[in-house]
Specification:
The protein is an alpha/beta fold. The protein has a single domain, classed as Alpha-Beta Barrel (TIM Barrel). Helix content is 41%, strand content 16%. It has a seven-stranded parallel β-sheet, with helices on both faces. It has a two-stranded antiparallel sheet with strand order 7-9. The longest helix has 16 residues. It is globular and about 45 Å long. Bound molecules: iron/sulfur cluster. Iron/sulfur cluster (SF4) binds next to loops.
Length: 310
């Protein structure tokens, strides 16, 4: 962004536009599990999942939801000067309980001062009609995002990842969210084993067609003690080089509808849980390189779509 122009629709900008101030997510662990771990959909979990429910580190699950938020809020206000916060139900599958229990937990979060909305992460197969109706209520009364793992638009990759659901299950969940006015953010991983660049970029087209509202883009990274860790050590999978990921992320953005909000552009992991690639730890450097590459190409989110329409 050295030319001062953001070349994609960033979540931070969206939050500033909506709230008029700096807003930070505060991750919470509300004690859920995951149907891909407890046997309901599968066992062993997704091969990339490090066992903490995909990405939620530094959380103190022994505290109540309210206390986790108070604790996180204080830290983020001090560090970033944030004035409002979104409670991010991140660990495991945060709709995997009866609606009455979900309501208690979500309400507990919204009752914390300066918590201005909710982000709820879950799986496409954890959204029965009564839960979707509950989420629709929250989507109407507060600032609300539902995050759903897709990872890939290919069923053969989802099988390899041991996701325990298929692409059609994600598409059906996305349609149900749209019908109810629930903002939906999809999780995608670039660099998955066995996928060509064209196949990875095809996921952008699928997200456009489904009308999702947001996307979190990650590079494939290997977490300690995940099934992927063993595969990586045996040489069965490899990770992208940093520059290859930067190019691929730009290609992906160029094919993505500019209406879709980018919640994340690179994977994240603490050093003591990461196996590879080492460049994961330089998140700011990767984001800067993506900005620089888009600037060098003189493109932005959606450029390829505009070219096709001309
Ligand atoms: S669905 Fe999420 S929490 Fe469950 S195994 Fe996969 S990444 Fe982990």
């Amino acid at each position: 962004m050295s030319d001062g122009v953001r070349r994609y629709t960033a979540f931070a900008d969206e939050l500033r536009r909506v709230f008029g101030c700096r807003v930070q997510r505060v991750s919470v662990d509300a004690g859920f599990t995951c149907p891909n771990r407890d046997g309901a959909a599968g066992t062993g979990g997704c091969i990339f999942c490090g066992g903490k429910g995909s990405g939620s580190f530094g959380i103190r699950p022994e505290l109540s939801v309210a206390d986790q938020l108070l604790h996180g809020k204080e830290f983020l206000a001090r560090r970033y000067g944030a004035r409002k916060f979104l409670a991010y139900f991140q660990s495991y599958s945060n709709t995997y309980a009866p609606p009455e229990r979900l309501r208690l937990l979500y309400d507990e979060a919204l009752a914390v001062p300066d918590v201005a909305g909710l982000i709820v992460g879950t799986r496409p197969d954890c959204l029965p009609p009564d839960v979707l109706d509950l989420l629709m209520e929250y989507a109407r009364k507060t600032y609300f995002w539902l995050e759903l793992g897709l990872q890939s638009s290919l069923d053969r990759t989802l099988t390899l990842l041991n996701r325990g659901h298929d692409v059609a299950s994600f598409a059906a969940a996305a349609r149900r969210c749209r019908e109810r006015g629930i903002r939906l953010c999809a999780h995608v991983i670039l660099g998955l084993p066995g996928e060509s660049c064209e196949e990875m970029l095809g996921t952008a087209g699928m997200l456009n067609d489904l009308g999702v509202d947001g996307v979190k883009i990650h590079h494939l990274h290997v977490m300690k003690d995940s099934p992927l860790d063993a595969m990586y050590r045996q040489g069965e999978v490899r990770c992208l080089e940093r520059d290859d990921y930067v190019g691929l992320a730009c290609d992906f953005l160029e094919r993505l509808d500019p209406r879709i909000v980018i919640h994340r552009l690179v994977g994240d992991a603490p050093a003591d849980h990461l196996v590879a690639p080492a460049w994961t730890l330089d998140k700011a450097g990767v984001l800067g390189a993506i900005d620089g590459e888009l600037e060098r190409r003189a493109t932005r989110q959606g450029t390829m779509l505009e070219r096709v329409m001309q």
